[in-house]
Specification:
The protein is α/β, with parallel strands linked by helices. The chain is built from 10 helices and 16 strands. It folds into 2 domains: 250 residues, 3-Layer(aba) Sandwich (Aminopeptidase), CATH 3.40.630.10; 112 residues, Alpha-Beta Plaits (2-Layer Sandwich), CATH 3.30.70. Helix 2 runs parallel beside helix 3, helix 3 packs across helix 10 and helix 6 runs antiparallel to helix 7.
Length: 370
């Protein structure tokens, strides 16, 4: 098993591709599925949906994301990325290797199955998000999926360990884009202008106050302004200043409240500074929420799994969980002796493929053949 995992992962590591443009990756996945004699269909140009049909009424699904990142790899490896400016810096090569290896073993033991099995090789997890597109196409309904599983390698969890929890596991994420509109004038005549930079500065402080207020109330949130741009010349009152930021929560009601608080602060600042502020809120991935009953079954079958705190990271696996119960878990890859401690998205990210044996073991047990 380990030889197959290594061969698959290291080949895929050489060909990282942008979301919805994973054509070489798609072709390699299809080649392996042909080798395993597993049927599949291609959707969204690069998504591969593989299916083991035993004519059961229910189907269990396993998902692997397949896209790379626009990161230039600094590792010196025999299997270093050959696509300049792109790298599998988030472990999706490992996710694919685990699901492909599990597919091979499950298909070889399909006489033990009590459910059909679906393998989803999903593009564009890093953005703009391939899971929602697959869900909206009705793939889960088409294949009678009743539960789904997925993983992410985690450099903060010991190599080979499985980490999971019930309920909220990863945050819902959103962004906001703010345009503060004032009136331009010569800096020597500020009375003739409306200073958008001043108003934007007050808004930055107001957002920070909102964050502190929520922290005092013990709400688990993340609010951060990442960009601010304004003005054209040093001696001109800035007519327009733009800001953008991110907010992450677990509870939709809390996210709605954050939007309301920011908007209310902006209106007060507009009244004070005579500006006109426009805010565009963009809701991105929903929260990853692990089903309680599936979680109990999971830890019964994987008794060595460790419990972890929920994370402010985000994952579009959540879209599947909005349609069917699911469990998302971490596969530990941290090995200090081997130097495998670099974080996700690092240009020196790497791991030992043997950690994926634990992932495959989970998938085989969830499929019911082990």
């Amino acid at each position: 098993m380990i030889d197959e995992i290594i061969k698959i992962r290291q080949h895929l590591h050489t060909i990282p591709e942008e979301g919805f443009k994973e054509f070489k990756t798609r072709d390699y996945i299809c080649k392996k599925l042909d080798e395993y004699k597993i049927e599949y269909e291609i959707i969204l140009e690069t998504a591969v949906i593989a299916y083991i049909d035993i004519k059961a009424r229910k189907t269990v699904a396993f998902r692997a994301d397949i896209d790379g990142l626009s990161v230039s790899e600094l590792n010196e490896l025999d299997y270093k990325s050959v696509h300049e400016g792109f790298m599998h810096a988030c472990g999706h090569d490992g996710h694919m290797a685990a699901v492909l290896t599990a597919a091979k073993i499950i298909n070889e033991n399909k006489d033990k199955l009590k459910e059909n099995v679906l393998f989803i090789f999903q593009p564009a997890e890093e953005g703009p998000g391939g899971a929602n597109a697959i869900v909206e196409m009705g793939i889960l309904e088409k294949y009678k999926v009743k539960r789904i599983y997925g993983t992410h390698v985690n450099p903060n969890v010991e190599e080979g360990k499985i980490a999971v929890k019930s309920g909220y596991f990863m945050a819902q994420t959103g962004e906001f884009y703010i345009s503060v509109n004032g009136k331009s004038s010569h800096a020597a005549k500020p009375q003739d202008g409306i200073d958008s930079i001043l108003a934007a500065s007050l808004l930055v402080k107001a957002v920070d106050d909102i964050k502190k207020k929520l922290e005092e109330e013990k709400e688990v949130t993340l609010i951060s302004i990442g960009t601010i741009n304004g003005g054209e010349r040093v001696n001109v009152i800035a007519e327009k200043t733009t800001l953008s930021g991110t907010m992450r929560t677990y509870d939709t009601a809390v996210r709605t409240r954050i939007k309301s608080l920011i908007s209310a602060k902006a209106k007060k600042i507009d009244k004070l500074c005579k500006t006109n502020t426009v805010i565009d809120y963009v809701d991105l991935y929903p929260a990853v929420y692990n089903d309680e009953d599936l979680y109990k079954d999971f830890i019964k079958k994987i008794p060595d799994a460790i419990d972890v705190e929920p994370s402010m990271l985000a994952e579009d696996f959540a879209y599947y969980q909005q349609r069917v119960p699911g469990v998302f878990f971490y596969t530990g890859i941290c090995n200090e002796e081997k130097g495998y401690t670099y974080q996700l998205h690092s240009n020196k990210f790497n791991f030992d493929e043997k950690a994926l044996l634990s992932t495959v073991d989970v998938y085989l047990k969830m499929a019911g053949i082990k």
